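Ticket #4471: structure output looks truncated?

Reporter: J.K.
Steps to reproduce: submitted the chain below (87 residues) through the standard prediction queue, then opened the result file.
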Amino acid sequence: MSIYHFLQTCQPRKEIKLEKAANDNEPTLVSLNDACRMTSMSRTMLNRYRAEGRFPIAVELGDRRVAFVRSEVMAWIRTKVQARAAA
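Returned output as attached by the reporter:
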């Protein structure tokens, strides 16, 4: 069987969508990179803020893996926006 024929007969992967229940109050974790994107900060700056206690505490997932509770990161962002509006 040629690679061309094989590729024609392969079925594309079905995308799995995780749906959140309306009453699901479980915390959602976001990666360090996602937290950087959410806050528009570099990893270096975010880690500096963490070391200084100026950012939400990370959840240790493994030896070299951390995540953040999404609602805590969003609350931190809201606080920053509110401080700007108050100034």
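Triage note (M.O.): checked the attachment and the full token line is present. The beta strands are 29-31, 59-62, 65-69.
Status: closed, working as intended.
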